[in-house]
Amino acid sequence: MLPVLTRIRVPAGFLLAGLYFWLASPTWPVWPVGIGLAFLGMLFRGWAAGHVRKNDQLAVSGPYAFTRHPLYLGSFVIGLGFSLAGQSLPVLALFLACFFLLYGPAMRAEEERLRQLFPLHYPDYQKTVPFFLPTRWPAGRDPAPFSLQHYRRNREYRAVLGFGGAWGLLLLKAWWF
């Protein structure tokens, strides 16, 4: 069941996005706050994408010094922001349920894969860096710089385009409905 849940998380996200736009009731006082929160999630995801070197090197710098899953944490903050902007309690409940149902197993599967790829380094990293929510300021981590080349290679610009499209649709719904 775990591989199935991991594979369907992206298609399920598109289905949920359609439901979200149908149920969303954005209003001007709340809409900008939610979009601002979602934008912070985008910045966090982008920061993470500039530090990860998939399958080549264990990422431990930048946001990876705070949490083992910064891309997922960024996605979570984006989802919370859009849920707030859409002002729909059913959407928020569905987002939270689906996030933990679909992304929880994906994070666990990723941890297992990283344990296999980096058997010497991952156990220590796992002991010192929180799983999902950052709990403390990291100490003694290598301050590797952000890499725009890795950001592009990881195709994070697609998330930015999706964010912009979703923001635009929500703006249209807030304006005309």
Q: What are the salient characteristics of this protein?
A:
177 residues; mainly alpha; Four Helix Bundle (Hemerythrin (Met), subunit A); 68% helix
Write up what this structure looks like.
This protein has 177 residues and is mostly helical. It has one domain (2-133, 142-176): Up-down Bundle (Four Helix Bundle (Hemerythrin (Met), subunit A)). Helices cover 68% and strands 0% of the residues. The protein has seven helices and no strands.
What can be said about this structure in brief?
By secondary structure, the chain is an all-alpha fold. It has helices spanning 2-23, 31-49, 70-86, 89-117, 122-128, 148-153, 157-176.
Question: Low-confidence stretches at least 5 residues in length (pLDDT < 50)?
Answer: none
Class by alpha and beta content: mainly alpha
Mean residue pLDDT? 85
User: What's the multimeric state?
Assistant: single chain
CATH class label? Mainly Alpha
Inertia-based shape? elongated
Q: Number of helix segments?
A: 7
Helix content: 55-70%
CATH architecture: Up-down Bundle
**Taking Cα atoms only, what radius of gyration do you get, to the nearest Å?**
17 Å
End-to-end span in angstroms? 40 Å
Q: Would you report the number of β strands?
A: 0
CATH-defined fold name? Four Helix Bundle (Hemerythrin (Met), subunit A)
How many domain modules?
1
Order of helices and strands: HHHHHHH
Largest sheet: number of strands, sense, barrel closure: none
What percentage of amino acids are in beta strands?
under 5%
